[in-house]
Amino acid sequence: GQQVMQIPQYQHVQEGEDFTTYCNSSTTLSNIQWYKQRPGGHPVFLIQLVKSGEVKKQKRLTFQFGEAKKNSSLHITATQTTDVGTYFCAGGMGYSTLTFGKGTMLLVSP
Amino acid sequence: DAGVTQSPTHLIKTRGQQVTLRCSPKSGHDTVSWYQQALGQGPQFIFQYYEEEERQRGNFPDRFSGHQFPNYSSELNVNALLLGDSALYLCASSRVAADYEQYFGPGTRLTVT
Predict the structure, then answer these.
(1) Over the range B15-50, which residues count as b (16 or more CB within 10 Å of their CB) and which as e?
(2) How many CB atoms lie within 10 A of CB A85?
(3) Residue in A75, A71, A105 with CA at minimum distance from that of residue A88
(4) Is B104 helix (H, G, I), strand (E, B) or coil?
(5) A47, A101, B10, B76: least buried by Cβ within 10 Å?
(6) d(CA B78, CA A10)
(7) What are the phi and psi torsion angles at B5 (to 5°)?
(8) Which residue of A has its CA nearest to B55?
């Protein structure tokens, strides 16, 4: 079955440093979505990428979808303590079902 | 506009028992998906309901079953509970005709002892 791998599992940065998490799928995806889950919370939708090579920005967050539609990345510039949480990528393969990666837990020290 | 709601918030059950979890989708959404999230893991897809029918199913045993009602709300039933069923159960709703963005509810924390 489809697998979505995410690295790193965990990253601890100082406030102001950059952060990147990478996502790789074993199969070609129709779309990829990114979610953020705060400790004790539920996943919250950040963005969806659909087109090959697509790049989208949300303030300090930059999302990329690979040319082959099998990998993606999320880059945060100048992290803030409010960025703390676990970031999940989720690959879409039709309808609305998603295969989630295991997530990257981000800790930001002030 | 209410988002996705789930009940109960927390639940403690004993091995072998049965449990029913409930979900009301976001207004305007007609598709409900259920996910199981074990501690430290990403959500795992259980199944999806649309037009009161199970449309897709993940790799979960038949002990996991569900239902969708005409008002689009949904239930997840788990029979013969195992210790390994302890997890956060998340419901997500979406519009089948939309761009697949899913709105997650706060989840039900199930503990099996």
Answers:
(1) eeeebebbbbbbeebbbbbbbbbeeeebbbbbbbbb
(2) 20
(3) A105
(4) strand
(5) B10
(6) 32
(7) -120, 145
(8) A95
Alpha carbon distance, N-terminus to C-terminus of chain A = 41
Residue B100 contacts residue A48 (beta carbons within 8 Å): yes
Strand, coil or helix: B98: coil
Yes or no: say if A37 and A85 are a contact pair by the CB < 8 Å rule.
yes
pLDDT tens digits for range B64-95: 999 999 999 999 999 999 999 999 999 999 88
pLDDT band of B96, cuts 50, 70, 90: confident
Distance CA A49, CA B80 (A): 40
Does residue A95 register a pLDDT over 80? no
Give the pLDDT band (50/70/90) at residue B101.
confident
Close Cβ partners of A73 (under 8 Å, ≥ 6 residues apart): A20, A21, A22, A23, A63, A64
Give the whole-angstrom CA distance, residue B48 versus residue A3: 19
Question: How confident is the model at residue A98, as a pLDDT?
Answer: 85
Q: For an interface test with B, give the residue of A97, A102, A104, A105 to mutate (most B CBs within 10 A).
A: A97
- Whether A96 sits inside 8 A of B100 (CB atoms) is yes
